[in-house]
Write a structure and sequence with these properties.
Elements lengths: L6 H14 L6 H12 L9 H10 L5 H16 L2 H14 L17 H14 L8 H14 L6 H43 L7 H10 L6 H65 L7 H53 L11 H18 L3 E8 L2 H8 L1 H18 L5 E6 L2 E7 L3 H17 L2 E3 L2 E3 L3 E7 L6 H17 L5 E3 L1
Parallel strand pairs: 6-7
Antiparallel strand pairs: 1-3, 1-6, 2-3, 4-5
Helix pairs in contact: 1-2, 3-4, 4-5, 6-7, 7-8, 8-9, 9-10, 10-11, 13-14, 14-15
Length: about 500
Amino acid sequence: MSEPKQPFEIAREALKRLAARQLAPTPANYQACYNEIAKLPNIVPFPEPPLRQLAEALVARSPEQKLAVEQLGAAIARRSWQGVQDALLGFVAAAGGPAREPELKILPVLPVEFAAKLARFVECVLPALGDDNERISEMSGEFLHALRQPELDLPAVQGMLANLSHQVLFAAEEQVEIKESLLKLLHLIIENIGELSLDDSWLKGQVDGLLATVVPPLSLRHLDEMERRLRDVMVKQSEAKSRSIEAQEEMRQMLSAFIERLATMSESSAAFQGRIEESARLIEGIQRVEDLAPLLKDVIGATRSMVEETAQSRQQLQVLQEKVLNTEAELVQLHLELDNASALARHDPLTDALNRKGLDEALVREIANMRRKETPLSLSLLDIDNFKKLNDRLGHEAGDDALIHLANIARKCMRPTDTLARYGGEEFVILMPDTPLENGIEVMTRLQRELTKAFFLSGREKVLITFSAGVAQLATEESGADAIKRADQAMYLAKRAGKNRVMAG
């Protein structure tokens, strides 16, 4: 006969059974599983909350009824069924007999409009959890069906919502873990791209950019940016690989020509040596001086031919060497041009903000999101105050450093979903999705305050940088260019109003 299980063992097994049956971890469910494992009778627990709700709903119309209600509360506290029964009978008797029923307060009913909005909320949340969990799909279907009934069973709906919330919590935690695992895998792939590259000097910037892009928190803007950068890397790798294959073929052909030339030179040398040896043998047999002249003429002709052929071979080898050097230089230049083209395609090389092309692409994306989600989108056009005077007094290098300083401070104040772009010269545009006009003005005002705290250093001199800005919220059918034009007009109003101001466009 096996030993009886210890209470902690029963408790642990009860928790496992709750999870296996996908039951909500309520005290009642836990007690039922515990009693089942311990082979104890599952006595229904004392329903204290509903009874207290009933007691609160009773309206006492006499001192006797008031006393009965107090007795009912005391009986509920003692968990005494007999006391509850006696108190309720006393309440009825104080009202004039069993014919009169106690008056109850009308319990609140879930408004139909609220039920519809709750159903819509559930429908919007479910796609984010995926369709792999059949249990969630089944429970959400039942919950949505209950919400759409003409007469809502409020207790049943509350129970369904509690169970569904429990399942959604598990699914959401799983989705978070999946996203973190995918990010780790993506990091590993990107790092391996850099490790596997034979010449990674041109690829390092792109790999670093990709790694920086996939740092949490993720957003659609970050993912779009990562996709564009990854495509840049793939295009660059493809072009470099194609040109490298061509260069390898050219090198092979030049090496083949070099070997053939060496073989020709070797044959010519061997023939020349043979002629010299034959001439030496003939010289030994000459008896008269006049017989020596034709032989010397032949030797001189062979020597001249050898010299000419050697010079020609040297010239051909020099040409081959120049081709090799030119091909190597071309490959290096190709890598540099591809790297520069990729970096400058959408980013300003000075501030690392988006350039006009990158801004145009970001505007198209954000406007599409705005219309799809029906959320506000604001943008700001800001212009550094007195920038020409700063350039004239401190020099253009200090002016460039001031632009970099402003861009860095702006990035620190921005949300991950916001976008910074250099519009031209000392002008910048900031896109702010899910931001109404008044909040956009607050964002720009906060950036102005941050700039006053973070002085720009030019050598040992502290320089206060300020800007004037215009903010515009895009209308539903408005283009990005029109919104920028409105923000630009508001920015000039801010300039005329005294600078270092933010105006609405």
